[in-house]
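User: quick one, sequence for these tokens?
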């Protein structure tokens, strides 16, 4: 699908297209390729994204760097917001608040993040998210505020 074709998709359609795309497709978000993110569930106002930890994710203490959870949360909450937006309308993160609960290990454990929209207005949107490990234990949770960017300004 061309970039022009992608621009004509609603946010929900775009997220579903990314979900079905091959990981090597050029338009798959590069941060997703870099971290090995999988779009597991895509619904209006809700996203589930997972990844498998690896040694490259380690901080100096040998556990998963907090930036991995923050990036996963920023992605899942932002994508949840995007699913509510019409074609031609974008968003960007204005604020991200992350609470870390426990460490994740680098040995190939699956981390699953769920993002849910709280509110979408004309110029801002809010969402919440959480990251769970394979045992369903909470790793981190977050909230975000996103700027909704409409053609011609807000």
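Assistant:
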């Amino acid at each position: 699908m061309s970039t022009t074709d992608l621009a004509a998709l609603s946010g929900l359609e775009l997220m579903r297209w990314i979900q079905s795309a091959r990981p090597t497709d050029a338009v798959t978000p590069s941060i997703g390729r870099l971290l090995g993110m999988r779009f597991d569930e895509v619904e209006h106002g809700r996203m589930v994204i997972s990844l498998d930890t690896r040694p490259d994710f380690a901080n100096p203490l040998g556990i998963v760097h907090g930036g991995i959870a923050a990036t996963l949360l920023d992605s899942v909450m932002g994508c949840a917001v995007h699913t509510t937006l019409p074609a031609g309308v974008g968003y960007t993160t204005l604020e991200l608040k992350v609470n870390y609960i426990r460490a994740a290990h680098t040995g190939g454990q699956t981390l699953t993040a769920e993002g849910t929209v709280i509110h979408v207005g004309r110029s801002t949107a809010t969402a919440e998210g959480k990251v769970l490990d394979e045992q369903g234990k909470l790793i981190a949770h977050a909230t975000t505020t996103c700027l909704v960017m409409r053609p011609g300004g807000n």
